[in-house]
Design a protein that fits this description.
The protein has 87 residues and is an alpha+beta fold. Helices cover 13% and strands 26% of the residues. The strands form 2 sheets. The chain has a 3-stranded antiparallel beta sheet with strand order 2-1-3, with no helix packed on it. It has a two-stranded antiparallel sheet with strand order 4-5.
Length: 87
């Protein structure tokens, strides 16, 4: 289930729980909260940009040295339906 971030609506003071922001876990199918679960003040859900993490670990995992270390074979297409074993 995703985390959602909420903050008090403009003009609302909020409590210690919601004054800045707070996160809660909700199902995607659930409606957004409309009031703070602690003090009942009006709140809004904050939309965040999607986080896209670039991970270069696949280069290490699929390296010839790592494949050989773990007993895998690496075949490269040599053309004409033939494959050469590299590792």
């Amino acid at each position: 289930m995703p985390f959602y971030t909420y903050k008090p609506k403009a003009g609302e003071d909020g409590c210690d729980y919601c004054r800045d922001t707070f996160e809660t876990v909700q199902r995607i199918t659930e409606d957004a909260l409309e009031e703070c679960p602690e003090c009942g003040c009006a709140i809004v859900r904050i939309m965040h940009a999607a986080v896209q993490k670039r991970d270069d670990s696949n280069k290490t995992i699929l390296s010839d040295e790592n494949l050989k270390k773990h007993g895998f074979k690496k075949l490269v297409n040599a053309g004409g339906g033939k494959f050469d074993e590299v590792v």
